[in-house]
Specification:
Oligomer: single chain
Shape: globular
Helix content: 25-40%
Largest sheet: 12 strands, mixed
Number of strands: 16
Order of helices and strands: HHEEHHEHEEEEEEEHEHEEHHHEEEH
Structural class: alpha+beta
Radius of gyration: 24 Å
């Protein structure tokens, strides 16, 4: 792909995908590195892009158009950004030497901060069995820190609409190897429903990435069973994690979505409130053991027999803005793993790293 076409994909992605707060976040990072300047006070010898006269919504696009350093900045940010979704897997037989050999064989691109190379975009397609696969040779970009080794698959999506409009998007799928743990995580963002060819697109993309990792790096992959871990976390009264909301499919065939409202005690409605009612009126219920036993049996039976299609946990913090809320969808789309969905601002990747470490070490 020629550089100008790649730039076009980035420009349309910034317009179509990045919300205003993400664009602002990127511009602040660019300004810290003196790549752009937004206050009009340019030095005589500076080479910063002057954005002071531009409307806010045009600043990031103008930066991408004028300087290749902006593109490298965005490429590096894609390794360290917060993503909307993730899935965690066990990883065996990971061999660093195979990664290095793949780089030598031009199967993996090694990230550098210089502008002599850029991410390679790759198309995907469905084979005759309906499985997702790379349309051409997939070449991820590698990036590394002390804690993590990243492989970023750079998918290109091109959508032709009836009115003649063509939308070109760069869609990164990030594989994060945790060096101190035998796990890796696949992270990705939301795709608009109008851009999906099937509802199973996320699952199909994950299978495609699995296939590449097995073929090129010889990795043995197995699912991480998060259900018992989450159940244990929920029962632990000494941690700082509480149930934020959950969906319960009841034995009777009914379904209920329970969500913590403004409760200081973080009580789920119905079952949580019943437990608290019995706790606060212990003397009264102890005098009527039949009613007490009946309610306890009802609560226990409901909790044990109800299926939980999803549950959301909240990592509490004295500072409300620092709380983390994650929704876990077990057996997502029929797969044998749990999909993690993060809520709130997507600027702090440390939250994702913290949650993954917490889950694995619990």
């Amino acid at each position: 792909m020629f550089f100008e076409e790649y730039k076009e994909f980035l420009i349309q992605t910034s317009n179509e995908v990045y919300p205003k707060y993400i664009q602002s976040h990127l511009l602040k990072g660019l300004e810290k590195q003196d790549i752009v300047n937004d206050d009009g006070n340019l030095s005589l010898f500076g080479e910063s892009i002057d954005l002071s006269e531009l409307p806010e919504e045009e600043k990031l696009v103008a930066s991408i158009e004028q300087r290749s350093e902006v593109i490298k900045f965005i490429e590096e940010w894609e390794f360290n950004k917060h993503y909307k979704y993730s899935v965690i897997f066990n990883c065996e037989n990971f061999n660093r030497e195979k990664v290095d050999n793949a780089i030598l064989n031009s199967e993996i691109l090694d990230f550098t901060s210089t502008d002599d190379s850029f991410d390679e975009l790759v198309s995907t397609k469905r084979n005759r069995f309906g499985e997702m696969e790379f349309a051409e040779e997939g070449k991820p970009t590698k990036y590394e820190t002390e804690e993590f080794l990243f492989l970023k698959f750079n998918i290109k999506y091109q959508f032709n609409f009836q009115e003649g409009r063509i939308t070109k998007l760069k869609y990164p799928i990030l594989v994060v190897f945790f060096k101190e743990l035998n796990i890796f995580e696949i992270r990705f963002d939301k795709i608009k429903n109008s851009y999906k060819d099937k509802d199973t697109l996320y699952v199909d993309n994950i299978s495609m990435i699995h296939g590449w990792l097995k073929s090129k790096l010889g990795i043995n992959i197995s699912n991480v069973n998060l259900e018992p871990k989450i159940e244990s976390i929920c029962k632990d009264k000494n941690n700082h994690v509480v149930v934020h909301s959950q969906c319960m499919s009841l034995r009777s065939g009914g379904k209920a979505t329970l969500e913590v409202g403004g409760h200081i005690e973080n009580l789920l409605p119905i079952l949580g409130e019943l437990k608290e009612l019995m706790k606060r009126n212990k003397i009264l219920f102890d005098e009527s053991t039949e009613i007490k036993d009946l309610l306890e049996d009802f609560i226990s039976d409901t909790e044990e027999t109800a299926n939980l299609p999803w549950i959301a946990l909240r990592w509490t913090n004295k500072v409300k803005a620092k709380e983390i809320i994650v929704k876990f969808q077990h057996r997502y789309m029929g797969a044998d793993y749990s999909l993690l969905q993060y809520f709130g601002s997507q600027t702090q990747v440390e939250r994702m790293n913290y949650v993954t470490n917490y889950l694995i070490k619990s």
